[in-house]
Amino acid sequence: SVTMETVPTTTQLVEPLFALWTNPPVDDTAALAAFRDLYHDPVTVNGIPFAAADLLVRARQVNQAYSDLRIELIDTVSAPARFVVAFQMLGRHTGPLATPLGIVAPTGREVRIRTIDVLTLDDSRISEVVVVGDELGTLIGLGAVRLASG
Question: What's the whole-model pTM score?
Fold first, then answer.
């Protein structure tokens, strides 16, 4: 079980997590090991189990879609067995981006993707993630969606 004393600090969890998603190891074996160091394999994301290999594919897609990728921490909240992190991912949209609406061709636009992750921790690794992301704001920012005026 996890107590307040065993909830990781921002340095212990957030920094390696952000580093892994913005700059995963080039070698797939090393990258998978890094994901397994932070996440259970599989990990549940928004109710769906994802293998470490699935997370790596997603990280590679993000890094192919955005250049100069970086993350700005907004805030964290710690609780027994939970860690909540609010952040913004920033970069330039220079590669194809898979979205629920289909592929968005590179726009060259700067993006600011606001996200809140609620992480459930088990044995000091992430066993579950609830992701609340501003996908609509991202799509509007890329010009893939326009709000109707009226």
Answer: 0.88
